[in-house]
Amino acid sequence: MKVRKAVIPAAGRGTRFLPATKAIPKEMLPIVDRPTIQYVVEEAVNSGVKTIVLITSRGKSGIEDHFDLAPELESLLQKKGDQKTWQEVHALAGMCEMISVRQQEQKGLGHAVLCARQAVGNEPFAVLLGDDIMDADPPVTAQMIRAFEEFGGSIIGVLNVPREQVHLYGAIKGKEVKPRVHRIERIIEKPSAEEAPSTIASTGRYLFTPRIFDFLEDQAPGRGGEIQLTDAIDRLAKIEPVYALEYQGLRFDAGEKIGYLRANLHYALKRPDLSAGVKELIREFSKKI
Fold first, then answer.
1. Disulfide-capable partner of 208 in 128, 129, 200, 212 (CB 3.0 to 4.6 Å)?
2. Rounded to whole angstroms, what are the CA distances from 89 to 9, 14, 86, 149?
3. Distances (CA, A) of 236 to 82, 91, 200, 207
4. What pTM was computed for the model?
5. pLDDT digits (tens, 9 = 90+) for 208-235
6. Range of the domain at 165
7. Could you read off the pLDDT of 244-267 as tens digits, one per residue?
8. Is 286 part of any domain?
């Protein structure tokens, strides 16, 4: 079955970016001149996804507005003769079908994914975390869809991380079945360096069979008193094959300040209209260090 839908959890409060996120969803913070979440939606769409299920909460309507038509703004741009900007703004509403689902209580990532059950239905689906930005060709989600088509089981996007950082992720124990592909035997949410079964860590991209919903439905709260997606994956892996794919590409954790700054620099340097100026800024500031 084709992977046609993707879930993007975007209900978090963004406390690490206060006071900037007091009135603005963290997903709308710009990376250069695009909201963070636009990079994530574009990855899904460029991977063949047709429908985005956006998990939101109170105060997040700005995300929905961003991917809607804006007649007054578009009319103004056309009157100014700014065809290029008009095309960019107008195209946002036609990128994909977007369904918005409210997560009324913040009960964890696992609960956020469970909120999408009715919208997803009985078919495989991707999950892309809204503050993990991936720069890859082909897109990371496309790489995972290819792996799903080959192996037929749920796929977790992973990277090898330094052992001193493994406590920030879900770490897997698995058996390599192909270069960069591991069948998961166990996955542990944010283990200590001593507890971690490996340094292969989940990093914000998932592709699930609909069976995951059965485990999320009765998943007991785990670390932090929240319903952890990792705990449900661990249980799923005991019933049906679940694989970890070491994807190829760059990852930026835009949910923390240094990662967010790195993402801005990376994407600015890729822009022909900005790269020269950014390089000059880097040279200027490097003299002050």
1. 212
2. 23, 25, 5, 34
3. 51, 38, 18, 13
4. 0.94
5. 999 999 999 988 888 777 888 999 999 9
6. 5-255
7. 999 999 999 999 999 999 999 999
8. no
